[in-house]
Amino acid sequence: MVLRKKIPTSVVVPGHPDYELLTSIAGEIDRKAGGRATLASEMPLMLRDCIDALINTPRTGRRDFNELEKVEKTFIGTHVEIVVRRFLRLEKGLLDTVILGHDVDIKFTTGDNWTIPPEAYNHPCLIIAADEERSLCYMGLIVIRPGVMHGGAGNRDAKRGISAEGFEHILWLLCDHPYPPNFWRTVDSATVERITATRSGNERVSALFEEVQGRPISRDVIDATARQKDFTRRTRADNGRGARDKLLEQGILLLTGTTHPALIAALGLPFCRRGEYISYTPKDDAEWAIAAQHGIIRP
Predict the structure, then answer these.
(1) N or C terminus of the chain with fewer C-beta within 10 Å?
(2) In a 10 Å sphere around its CB, with 0-12 CB exposed, 13-18 middle and 19+ buried, how is residue 177 labelled?
């Protein structure tokens, strides 16, 4: 399921009854996040991590959100609430949190709407969504009132979603915003099987970087693949036993955005964030010469 393929233009502009309240809360969220740009950069990654931790492909063999059990999908909403509150350094309140003295509910969905409880009525709500199919994410603010909900002023005892007209009353912080796909969905099933079938952590991490080259891979993917406490050790040389030395013996470079940003750029590889890894087989002597300039000698 996807949220909405066409999000209506927000009517939360000067003159709207909730404009002052929602813009002040939005400003506080931006401030807590370190700016809108930081929010836009970090929020998609946090959502991806929350979902991937439950999918956990290397242990479960599952590659898709839809393969999760119903109780697991329910837990993700709570997990996102906790992670967002921690990221924004927010206190717990009568609802999920308090922002500028206002009790605020936090709701998350991977479907086409949010499930809003009666106790959230007449309060601001921070609504968050991840669209797994289109790799988009959303974050907005809305004051929950009967008029923006399905069923109008009907039964307040039942949880309901936001109506089509209600979507117009959302002040968006992130809308149709890029959201990274689940890593394992981008890798064909035969490759996943080759990576996860090996027995030791070193072998699985080495297989990961042999099979998936030229693209950044996060620490979380490596952690899930290694299935060991000191998973970063698998990416180091480790006196010839780690993945880096074993890969180099095969002519494969294992680089990190923390240690090798200049070499990654010199080889024309995709940008790697700090803590991300990328493997690559140099194509010719010229590329090996570039690696040598950065301290990596061809075996």
Answers:
(1) C
(2) middle
